[in-house]
Structures are given as C-alpha cells and as structure tokens.
# Entry
Amino acid sequence: MTDGGAVGVTDGGEAGGGAEPVAARPLRIATWNVNSLRARMPRVEEWVAEHEPDVLCLQETKQPDRTFPAELFASIGYETAHHGDGQWNGVAIASRIGLVGVQRGFGSAEDSEGCRMVAATCGEVRVHSVYVPNGRSLDSAHYAAKLAWLARLRCFLGETCDPARPVAVCGDFNVAPHDRDVWDPAELVGCTHVSGPERAALGDVEAWGLVDVVRALHGDEELYSWWDYRGGAFHRGHGMRIDLVLVTRVLADRCVGAWIDREARKGVKPSDHAPVVVEIGAVGPG
DNA sequence: ATGGTTGCGAAGCAA
# Structure
C-alpha cells in the first residue's frame, strides 16, 4: 500500500511584506551504488555535505537492517529507510524532506533475488531505490532472473503508482540502455548489461511512463556511471552508464539539471560507481 | 595471457 502522498516542499513559499520572492532551490535527488556502506560511509558523509541532496538512494549497502547507520544519517538531517538482510545487496533511501509510506521489496516471491528495492514517499515524490540483479552471464540462471526482476518492477509500478504523478525510480539497473552508454560496444558483444533482452526489459519499465532524464538533458554526450576497479578502467575511460534516475513526465518537465559526479570515482577508496544527480524545479507558470 | 581490483569474511565468491 502506498500513500501516493502529495506533501509539497514548502521552503521559500510566498514572499510577504514586499520582499523579493526567494527562488525555491530545486529538489535534488541522487542515487549512488556505494559498494558497501561500511567501507564507504566516510565518502558518503563527505559527498552529502558537499552536494546536499534532498533525497539520496543507495545501493549495495551490504549489511542487515540492524547495522545500518540510521543514527548517523539522522545526525546530519536525514530520515532513512533500509532494506538489507545480510552481507549482499541492500538498498536504502535517505531523505531530509520527509520519508513516509516505506515499502521493502515487492511483497512477493519474485523478490527472492535479495533485498533490491525499497520505496518511500519523500515530499511530493514516490521514490524507489533499486538494485537490479547483475545477471552474471547470458547463459546463467541469474540472467533469466534479472529479466524476471525487471518485469516484476514494471508490474509493481503499475500496481502501486500512477504515471501521472511524481514518481522516481533510481538506482543501479545493471543495464546500459544504449550502445552510446558503453565505452566500446564491440568489446561487449555477448556480455550482460548490453544485450537486447535486457534493454527491452528496461525499455518496458520506461514505457510505463518514465524518462531517463540524465540522457534526455545531455544528447549523445559520453556519460558513464560505473568503471571496473581492474585494469585502470576509470583512467582509460572504460565505463558504462548503468546507474539511472527515471522519473515520470511531470517531474521530467520540471528537470533543471542532471549529471553524474565523476569526481566521486576519484580519490581514496572510491566506490566503483559514481553518484547520479537530478534537480527538479518548483512547479510554476514557467 | 581466462588476467585485473575491491569487499565480503577469513577461502573463494560476487561484481
């Protein structure tokens, strides 16, 4: 059950007494596969302090709920919802604009691939943090499970959300939507993340009513969100764009910025993924 | 050249 809440973000608001209207800061939604929150928490704290997301979706926290650092997030102003049951997978949402109506998993047997989805209403937006199964290889049972999981996500959205309302589906999709989203398509023929069935399954999710806003705002620009730790892949530009923020049209039409923070892939003990950020402007006459 | 790196947990497995 979701509340589909319509709680507005009310910073700014009416400017009274003849003062200049204060432009509302856009809503900033980010997603980041941190590849272990325990290993990455210092980097996450640093990043949050610098970029001040209103909502931050996390994937691969790699811990059970009982060790999730909810108090630490609270101390820096964020409510959190976490869905994790062990040392693998694990997803979370951190929000400083409210967090209600938490749902962990799809509530069905199809979630047996692990803790890979948590949803909550943050301000006016129904937010989903997803970690799509990797698939391992095209001939693996895990690949079939990946396709089934994406199909289940599509059904779940149809069952629980309205594409005419503000909805965001954020996370590590483990699919590069297009050949331009990988450093060398020829190198990856026969590999997961780029296969036709995976792209079709992702396309079905988007066809529910979601827009890939980072790509929408950047044309054919080279954009990657993940680089293998091995072989100097980051330095060599061998990346893929597999971390996405998908939003419904009402949000896409208000999107005033969208980017991938490559800086977060540098420095001491980085995740192999970079954060993806989108900014949603206030509703207005335009 | 079936490599390479990181995180899990304490030997390989997963990514």
